[in-house]
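Intended use. Records like the one below are meant for learning the mapping from a protein sequence to its folded structure. Do not use them to infer anything beyond what is encoded.
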Amino acid sequence: MTDLSTVAVGTELPALQVTFDRQRLVRYAGASGDFNPIHYSDHHARALGLAGCLAHGMLTMGVGLRVVTDWCVDPGRVRRYSVRFTKPVQVPDDDAGAVVHFTARVSAIEDAVATVAIDARCGEDKVLGAAVAEVSLA
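Structure written out for the chain above:
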């Protein structure tokens, strides 16, 4: 368990690596009700001018917060979370899927609230921009 009393600006959170594959996308579609075919069909995605099947943005956003909740243990400590979608995660139709690397560090602390900046990359592509969570330390 993380001792939040020792958190300081610059504290790096443990990195998280998550594989997005077609099975994950179909499961998320079922849970969210978002059955847009660009999330499971290369044919439909390409018909719209996309390179191929894309992960749901909200799935990427939600998984990105795990780097914070795994660190602070109690998801109830997260007071605010926001991201800007910069590039969708393209998910190939193979066994390897697409690997997204999430890193984070504390960028500010004020009134016992840590601001955590999150970086999310799939290969060289930054998939979430301005991803910031506010976490209660008290």
